[in-house]
Amino acid sequence: MEWDERPGSNDVPTPVMVDVGDHALCAQVRGKGPTVVLDCGGSGQGIGGWGEDLERTLAERATVLTYDRAGVGRSGGSQARTVAEMADDLHRLLHALHLELPAVFVGWSYGGLVTQLYATRHPSDVAGLIFVDPTASGTPPGSALVRDLSFLLAPRLLRLRAIFGGTNAQPLRELAVTLTGMQNAMREVAQARQESGLPPVPIRVITAGRRPRMPKTHLEHLNADHHALADQSPHGQMMVAERASHQIPFEQPEIISQAVDEVLSLPPNSQEDLNR
What we know:
This protein is α/β, with parallel strands linked by helices.
């Protein structure tokens, strides 16, 4: 597949549909250099979901891939039932596009779960991992009954909002599907980390410095998981986006650029050694 490299053509690249088997994924590639994969949070509408400033900055030094997950945005198929299916979809997409591997994977929020599963299933594809305020894996603290009711009611409220959502109707319905399977996704990733662990590549975990009010036990659970992610590698580090809430790509995008630069600056032979 060829990309238009004429001056100015890479400013707003045209998304393409890429066959990954029984469906096609909508993907956007911009820039030149080593591959950086941005895996978005929410329902998984990744094209345009990271903010133009961040994508443009990263594309000055890397080949940047964004994409919509199956059944989301402009991608075909149905929304995946498991995180492993999402990770394998991304694996097929990267190889279909013939992008340079190993790549640096950047997962924001729910995308952090996808990139973790990707790393456990396809470690040779991974040169580095950057988690942007990732969703915590495992089982959150508190009452199981309250937790189950919350994950039951939230998708229903989103679907109700979608009835009057106008242009936001589709993303709201897609997010409802994601939340319906959220508890299973968090358990799935926790189990994969326990069984396989992440590859010993450089890891940066960027945590939000401005959090909404939440129970102390939930905050402790979130912080503990972020530190545990960084500790998965001898080359892991925590970073705090002091000025940002969960919306780090929009409120403090420079800290993501810094993390990518740190990982990309490692000599190629060091990354190869880490992947062995």
